[in-house]
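R.M. (postdoc): so does anyone remember the format we settled on? I'll just put the structure tokens first.
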């Protein structure tokens, strides 16, 4: 019986991963491809350039927010992102994939020291087409982030675990944020003063040098 299982690896590290194991019979029909789908909340994201350098994941397609620099409160796409990993036709089973992802900086809190993040369980299935190859599964009716396909395709989903994946992310304290902001302002102000002082000293030295040169010429 086909089964898709997932778990989070290195959950407390800076570089967590989602490990997905798929047990099923291979479909040798060349008009069908196995797609593994990850629906990610806005609190986490993947780096498409990193994933494309990991050939073991298959062909990668990402829709949604994947800006690497934005904190959680600054992102515009509140629906998060969706990742498709298309596997080669000659894939053998059981199949194991490790999807690396990254955590966004959470909003500082007065009370919390950590924030739980819930991830929908990844799922997989066979995407089949009749004439034109579908670049991703026909899931536009289920997820608004996914563009519609201009031609007909079908998606047969494999059974998968329903339990969501969870991890805990550290959250900064509001008072710490104030201290960081104040410290940053003071550091910038001191650097500005130091630069201004250095420029002033340099100008004064130049004036003295020019004055000495004029006196020597007059003598």
């Amino acid at each position: 019986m086909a089964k898709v299982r997932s778990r989070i690896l290195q959950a407390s590290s800076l570089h967590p991963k989602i490990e997905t194991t798929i047990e099923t019979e291979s479909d040798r029909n060349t008009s069908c491809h196995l797609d593994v789908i990850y629906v990610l909340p806005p609190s986490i994201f993947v780096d498409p350039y990193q994933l494309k350098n990991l050939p073991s994941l298959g062909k990668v397609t990402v829709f949604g927010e994947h800006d690497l620099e934005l904190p959680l409160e600054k992102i515009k796409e509140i629906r998060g992102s969706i990742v498709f990993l298309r596997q080669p036709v000659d894939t053998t089973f059981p199949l194991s994939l490790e999807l690396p992802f990254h955590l966004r900086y959470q909003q500082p809190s007065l009370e919390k020291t950590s924030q739980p993040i819930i991830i929908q369980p990844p799922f997989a299935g066979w995407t089949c087409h009749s004439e034109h190859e579908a670049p991703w599964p026909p899931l536009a009716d289920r997820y608004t982030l996914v563009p519609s396909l201009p031609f007909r395709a079908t998606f047969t989903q494999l059974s998968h675990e329903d339990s969501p994946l969870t991890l805990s992310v550290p959250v900064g304290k509001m008072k710490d944020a104030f201290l960081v902001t104040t410290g940053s302002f003071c550091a910038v102000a001191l650097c500005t003063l130091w630069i201004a002082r250095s420029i002033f000293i340099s100008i004064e030295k130049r004036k003295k040098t020019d004055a000495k040169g004029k006196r020597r010429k007059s003598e």
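R.M.: ...and that's the designed sequence above, right after the tokens. Also worth knowing: The mean pLDDT is 85. The longest strand covers residues 32-40.
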